[in-house]
Amino acid sequence: MPVKPDILKVTATAKSRLFQVEEIELRFSNGVERTYERLATRGRGAVMIAAIDEQENVLLIKEYAVGLEDYLLTLPKGLIDPGEDAIEAANRELKEEAGFGAERLEVIKQMTSAPNYMGHKITSVLARGLYPCRLEGDEPEEMEVMRWPLSQLDKLFQREDFSEARAIAALYMIRDKLKQE
Amino acid sequence: MPVKPDILKVTATAKSRLFQVEEIELRFSNGVERTYERLATRGRGAVMIAAIDEQENVLLIKEYAVGLEDYLLTLPKGLIDPGEDAIEAANRELKEEAGFGAERLEVIKQMTSAPNYMGHKITSVLARGLYPCRLEGDEPEEMEVMRWPLSQLDKLFQREDFSEARAIAALYMIRDKLKQE
Lengths: 181, 181
What we know:
Chain A is of the alpha+beta class. Helices cover 19% and strands 44% of the residues of chain A. Chains A, B: Its cofactor is Mg(2+).
């Protein structure tokens, strides 16, 4: 691997309730200096859950995404709470957002979103052995749950209201994994 | 689709050179009110390019990602400049970051990254008919370019230094598309 740049200075430049912006001064190994901005990373990361039923359907939720000001189809997801690991967080979020618990959960991959601008990580989790179980979460409204056949991912990804790269990546990885089992 | 929440108020709460944070007050159709924060969306979006050579290898770049403070393997990508469309931006970024132009480019899908927190969109582009051509970009150092067989994506995604969800999603979509051609 190349030699990493030296970090010369990190300065907090803006702060809101949720976000904190840092300016970071770097010197690359060739001597070039650059100043970048990034979002500071706080918390324990997030999980995204692909819950697969006995008929090889995946559970999707319809959720309002304030960044797009629209409802989107996506996978259940959420932040890892203090004291939880990724598996525990995944089972809790699945119960809160989709109304199901899972008997078998396994980590698929830790993914990054926009690593040039933030360090945020999300762990995709495969959940199987589903049973009805609803936990009260902090959602402002109940989410509509839809089942979609894993064999028809191409049709799902053609939909304009299914656009989240992390969900597309997670579903393909899981489809490939299940084919190999 | 469900009835969208009413947007009661949008307030700018923090601003840096690159980022602007907004607080947004909503009333959902069930009457529940919530206040969220999101990053304001500026600019024309971004492109991510999967350039495939005659042997069905994809061109990867090794790039320093300041959000993770490490080098990552990923696809060439960048912001769409004023006056460009996604295809033009893709061909320019490919020349700047990988040193290749493409005779045939096509849009695969417009993807979102973290739509609960930002409206940013990135368009994945398939590039074929590659020829050597380097444009000077704003990169602080020359990027190492690596060719990876499309038939071995599973091995690529097992690597810890290949983690970007948007790149995983783009490569799977393109592999599926090429299989069907």
